[in-house]
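Below is a filled-in request sheet from our internal design queue. Each sheet records the structural input a requester submitted and the sequence that came back. We keep these sheets so that new team members can see what a complete request looks like end to end.

REQUESTER: design group, bay 2
PRIORITY: normal
MODE: inverse folding
CHAIN LENGTH: 106
BACKBONE (tokenized):
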């Protein structure tokens, strides 16, 4: 399984990448929304893990743009924005699920 992590905080991106690689997943990382959008558009992924608050293009914009392009890769929003309105906004842009930080791999 190939996963794309789009997360601007390098420490968090590295920790998630490391955890997923320990489970034998192939993982790529993009550090801003524009880079994430370009990576998701250029390559095939089984899952995209997408932060919301990022430079260049926020996660909502990335998700909406990918869905508008016809990209149906499952998207998990992984973000510190945990209010009900944030969850609804993420799902309304086309995300498949929404997980608030901090989280546990278990």
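RETURNED SEQUENCE:
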């Amino acid at each position: 399984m190939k996963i794309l992590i789009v997360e601007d905080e390098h420490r968090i991106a590295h920790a998630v990448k490391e955890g997923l690689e320990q489970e034998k997943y192939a993982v790529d990382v993009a550090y801003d929304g524009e880079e994430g959008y370009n990576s998701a558009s250029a390559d095939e992924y089984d899952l995209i893990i997408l932060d919301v608050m990022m430079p260049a293009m926020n996660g909502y914009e990335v998700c909406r743009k990918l869905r508008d392009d016809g990209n149906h890769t499952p998207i998990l929003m992984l973000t510190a924005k945990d209010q009900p309105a944030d969850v609804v906004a993420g799902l309304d842009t086309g995300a498949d699920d929404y997980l608030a930080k901090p989280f546990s791999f278990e």
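SHEET NOTES:
- The two ends are 19 Å apart (CA to CA).
- The chain has a mean pLDDT of 93.
FILED BY: M.R.
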